[in-house]
Amino acid sequence: MMAFSLAGLNFPSSPVCRASFTSCSSSSPSSLSLDAAYIKRAAELADRSSGFTAPHPNFGCVIATTSGTGERVVAGEGYLYAQGTTPAELQAVEAAGERCRGATAYLNMEPNHYLGDQSAVSALVQAGISRVVIGIRHPLQHLRGKAVRAFKSEGLLVDVLGEDLQCKTIEECLKSCLLVNAPLLYRAACRVPFSVLKYAMTLDGKIATSSGHASWISSKKSRTRVFELRGRSDAVIVGGNTVRQDNPRLTARHGGGHLPQRIVMSKSLNLPEVANLWDVTEVPTMVATQRGAKRSFQKFLASKGVEVVEFEILNPKVVMEYLYDRGCLSVLWECGGTLAASAISSGIVHKVDAFVAPKIIGGRNAPSPVGELGMVEMSQALELIDVHYEQVGPDMLVSGFLHPVPDLTPVIPSMDETSAIDPTVSPYEASIIFFYKTWDPYGAFSNFSLHPICLPDENGDNYSWPSVEHYYQAYKFVGLDDPVARNCLEEIKNAKSPEEAARLGRKTQRQRPDLVRSDWESVKTDIMYRALKCKFSTYHNLNSMLISTVGSVLVEASPHDLFWGGGRDGEGLNYLGRLLMQLRSEFLSDAKSNADNGTRRQEGNEVRKLP
């Protein structure tokens, strides 16, 4: 049995018998090499989505078939741009067309497959795919193995790397599948966002001169790479000293389209009143502080539009747990040595990216990238795993994983197998059902789920909105006779993902509140209700999922949205959950009414039949 480890990510094959087991000794090396090459291509495609929207599971798909000359060729491929957009599998099927019949589909990761979203599996099955090769199983417990079982139940041959296919070539390919979704894998295992500590230092290990001056240690090429790293992150974290000394912007201005939230950790709130981070017109900023710290400065930050979150005891661990609740997958730490040491000691740093510049500045008091960790012997030193070296201009980028992650293999028998034996066993017995991200068990309740709705646009014509979020954000600007508002509305309609639609709508509302329709606050719940009713009336499986929650309280588990969500400590108004429960009640009432009418008609027919 083979096990592959990436910084402690152990994925041994499950101890169950597999009829399709293949190894280098039982399958030709050329066939396995092709399988590995196509899976690696799928992983490369999946990586294209990183940096364009808020990070999410990265999916790629390659469909390969046999040509008339007997050669294996690519018939179609695709990648998931963002949650709520066309699945990679469906894109590949559309590109391949009739060549899908009898072809093989290569997926870097097992696709989502649950009641609210079965489109990826359905696309491959209906297209006539005969074999599916999967890089890794889905790391989330409620999704792990479901698509594999669905494929097999439809008669498709399924091979999973490291389980059904094993050899040196496959092992190297498996590593690429793990790397492209490292944030999701670490988050699933540790229940905190995937954290990367980034810093630039000189050859003698300094991050600034004795005076604190640090511009610039690394080269322009290295700084461009940092912009790309930020674009792949949900948030960028610094400490108060970095704000005071460097006055950073922390933007991804040369990276992808995604703009991560800036976060400042400061217990005392001893921060300057003038700082680039207080400008939130383009990118939001959050300040994490200790409860009760400088109330007057908290009010000042709030007046600037900066979000302030108080913690009983401020430390990296509680901030990461909070960001986990907010749905963050990946966080980039760009802090000084003191905060970096605290983050490492807390066990929440998973990877290190160190840019080493060919410079020497010396200085006894010049700071180093990591502060005191309490080590007195070299045997205590922390060693990076899976180290990678890359020259970036004149600098050397040293990357490696630091924090091992527990094995993600589910306990056998799984919850699905247990439920098949005893139908009374359910993983969702709680009286409160939380939903937030689209990959959650009830993620289809989210406004960001991939369920287009047909409702009127600004001209009153029926229009297929890609998601509820597109419709909701666009209607902020309906009816306004202003070219900027009309342009924003059109951009929202054409946004590639719900995340982009939300970002466009919120940004314009924040920068130009005068462009938002004057009655917005009084009509926004009605507009949301209209969109939700259309969504849950259009899709029978969603309607069934909603009705199946009868008896449970529905809560959108957003810790920061106090209107639509439940808030961090239950202080939110949870209007999205309320509207869904209202809809559920209406659907149940309609079903009962229809059943009663059917019973009366049946009774009437029976009466008429009596002699």
Q: What would you say this structure looks like, in words?
A:
This protein has 611 residues and is α/β, with parallel strands linked by helices. It folds into three domains: 25-180, Cytidine Deaminase, domain 2; 190-401, Dihydrofolate Reductase, subunit A; 415-592, Tetracycline Repressor, domain 2, CATH 1.10.357.40. It has 18 helices and 22 strands. It has helices spanning 29-46, 88-96, 119-127, 146-153, 168-180, 182-190, 220-231, 240-246, 295-303, 316-325, 337-345, 415-421, 468-474, 483-493, 498-511, 520-538, 540-547, 575-609; strands at 5-6, 9-10, 22-23, 60-66, 72-79, 104-109, 131-136, 157-160, 165-166, 194-202, 235-239, 261-265, 285-290, 307-311, 330-333, 351-357, 385-392, 395-401, 432-435, 453-456, 462-465, 553-556. The strands form six sheets. The chain has a nine-stranded mixed beta sheet with strand order 14-13-12-11-15-10-16-18-17. Strands 5-4-6-7-8 form a five-stranded mixed beta sheet. It has a two-stranded antiparallel sheet with strand order 1-2. Strand 4 (60-66) and strand 5 form a beta hairpin.
Looking at this protein, list some descriptive labels.
about 600 residues; alpha/beta; Cytidine Deaminase, domain 2; Dihydrofolate Reductase, subunit A; Tetracycline Repressor, domain 2; 9-stranded mixed beta sheet; 18 helices; disordered N terminus; NADP binding; Eubact_RibD; glycosidase; hydrolase
Summarize the model shown.
With 611 residues, this protein is α/β, with parallel strands linked by helices. It is 35% helix and 18% strand. InterPro entries: CMP_dCMP_dom (IPR002125), Cytidine_deaminase-like (IPR016193), DHFR-like_dom_sf (IPR024072), Eubact_RibD (IPR004794), NADAR (IPR012816), RibD_C (IPR011549), RibDG_C (IPR002734), Riboflavin_Biosynth_HTPR (IPR050765).
